[in-house]
Amino acid sequence: MSVISIEGMEFFAYHGCFKEEQVIGTKFNIDLFLTLDTSKAEVSDKLHDTVNYQHVFQIVKAEMQITSKLLEHVGRRILNSIQSTFPQVEKATIKIRKLNPPLGGKMNFVSLSMDF
């Protein structure tokens, strides 16, 4: 078993419960960890025998463009899309960070981690 990590993906999006967040938007960072058997790709050296990182990034990007109120909703959509597109992934863990959230005080980010 191997873990493919795609970390530090950056997006500007309009997720949040406050109306202002859905108008002004903010920055998000995403880390994604995919657990799968890579033994075939280790021998073949063929991209089609593993997970295409670029395709994964495009899935995350597309889901981030759909406005949601909750990070939980965004995270589950991303994980569902990864699972349906790449059935060879046995486990996926995502961490979504919302930078500078409007919570009435100074903080770097809030985050959500979830998996399938």
Mean pLDDT comes to 97
Ends distance: 16 Å
Task: Compute the number of structural domains.
Answer: 1
State the share of residues found in helices, binned by percent: 25-40%
Topology as a string of helices (H) and strands (E) = EHEHHHEE
The DSSP helix count reads 4
Query: How does the helix and strand content classify structurally?
Result: alpha+beta
Which stretches of 5+ consecutive residues score pLDDT under 50? none
Beta fraction? 35-45%
Spatial strand sequence of the major β-sheet: 1-2-3-4
Structural description of this entry:
It contains 4 helices and 4 strands, in the order E-H-E-H-H-H-E-E. The protein is of the alpha+beta class and about 120 residues long. It has a single domain (about 1-115), classed as GTP cyclohydrolase I, C-terminal domain/NADPH-dependent 7-cyano-7-deazaguanine reductase, N-terminal domain (GTP Cyclohydrolase I, domain 2). It has a 4-stranded antiparallel β-sheet. Helix 3 (about 55-65) runs antiparallel to helix 4 (about 70-85).
TL;DR of this structure?
With 116 residues, the chain is an alpha+beta fold. It has helices spanning 19-24, 39-44, 53-64, 71-85, and strands spanning 2-13, 26-36, 89-99, 109-115.
Notable features of this structure?
GTP Cyclohydrolase I, domain 2; elongated; 116 residues; 4-stranded antiparallel sheet; alpha+beta
